[in-house]
Amino acid sequence: MTAELYRIAAVLYFYQTVPSAYSRAIEHRDLLRSGLELLWEMKICSSPWPLFIVGSSVTEDKDRIRFLDLIETSGSSRRIGNYTIITNLLRALWKRQDLVVDEKERARVDWRDLVEEGGYMPSFI
């Protein structure tokens, strides 16, 4: 499951970094849905990088709430400060994504733009 989660996260990361002309929205949504279903099945994710990458693609409120619960459970299990940093960064990203929503197309928000100079970043970055 972990290997598949990393594979899904790698492709989602690719879609986040290539020009939108090269990524297909339908494939992206299906991949995100597969990643979320895998995370729901795992119940605890001990791999912060794929957890963050999948989380950065979540747009639905019900998935965001469930995702935050998963991060809290995973963070309690691992007792590592990264999960707090990931949670704060995801919340900031989701807020920014919600603010730039256009009726025709969702604008791309780069999470790296949200990290303040000298601020904390998860150790996988």
Please, could you describe this protein's structure?
The protein is globular. The chain has one domain. The model has no long low-confidence stretch (mean pLDDT 81). Helix 1 runs antiparallel to helix 2 and helix 1 packs across helix 3. The chain contains 5 helices and no strands. It is mainly α. The relative contact order is 0.13.
**How many beta strands in the DSSP annotation?**
0
Structural domain tally: 1
Taken as a percent bin, the fraction of beta residues is under 5%
- Helix and strand sequence: HHHHH
Compact overview of the structure:
By secondary structure, the protein is an all-alpha fold. The protein is built from 5 helices and no strands. It has one domain.
How would the blueprint of this fold be written?
Blueprint: H1 2-17, H2 25-42, H3 48-55, H4 61-78, H5 82-99
Structure characteristics:
single chain; 125 residues; mainly alpha; 5 helices; 62% helix
